[in-house]
Amino acid sequence: MMNLTIGWLYFDLMNTYGDRGNVLTLKNRAQKRNIAVTIKSLTTTCTPMDIQTCDLLFMGGAEDWQQEIVSKDLQGEKKQVFTHMIEDHIPGLFICGAYQFLGEYYLTADKKKLPGLNIIPIYTQQSTQTSKRLIGDIVCEVTHPALLKYIPSKQDRLLIGFENHGGRTMLLDKKNALSRTISGYGNNDSDATEGSVYNNTIATYMHGPLLPRNPVIADFLIAKALTVKYNHEVELTPLDDTVITNNRTYLLKKMYDSRA
Ligand code: GLN
Known about the structure:
Layout lengths: L2 E7 L10 H12 L4 E7 L5 H5 L3 E4 L4 H10 L2 H12 L4 E4 L1 H5 L3 E3 L5 E3 L6 E5 L7 E9 L2 H6 L7 E8 L1 E5 L5 E7 L9 E6 L2 E4 L5 H4 L1 H16 L11 H18 L1
Parallel strand pairs: 1-2, 1-3, 3-4, 4-13, 5-7
Antiparallel strand pairs: 5-6, 7-10, 8-9, 8-11, 11-12, 12-13
Helix pairs in contact: 1-8
Bound molecules: glutamine (GLN).
């Protein structure tokens, strides 16, 4: 029996708009395939080794003050371990505030510059012109080649989520974008890109939570985690997603209708 350890990073600080649902979805979809799952809830008291022993990483979003605490904690050996894991293709999902950490820096609403981990070539700042936050339902179409290869169905490539952020993230290389924004904002309010992909790491502004609404992304992360862990290509058996597909059809119709 295969097993999977999911590291839920800063579960008590970085967790907004139902982000926890992502962890539950990963667990549920892995268990349905007979994969044993351990969830490690990690926070500032954790050691670098606690992070290193995970097969898949997850971190949710937060307000600026919580991000400040985490950016101080994710330093030194923890930062090194975390960075190496991402470089070594350990998969991860990073939502909103967690996404912002992966770049060069995040300039908060109070103009504090929180240094990032410099893993993905992005930077994030709040607008100097307006205090408007980017809030609402969002629909995007996956454009990143690593994901396109994994998601043959055009319908499944539509990602549905909810966003609420003041930070505008700019991609230094647009080829790293996860998707193209169809409705809503995404990375910023100017270039219609959403999220970033780096190795097996997916970073996005989509709360929702993301994975129950877009299970192909959950399966991508699980399959990659097992492939890296067991050192051979792991393909997951398909699940009956009729209920989710019907729900997606309903949500997409509702979002398109409200735009008409
Ligand atoms: N505090 C950050 C911002 O406003 C992230 C928000 C979030 O994670 N929902 O941009």
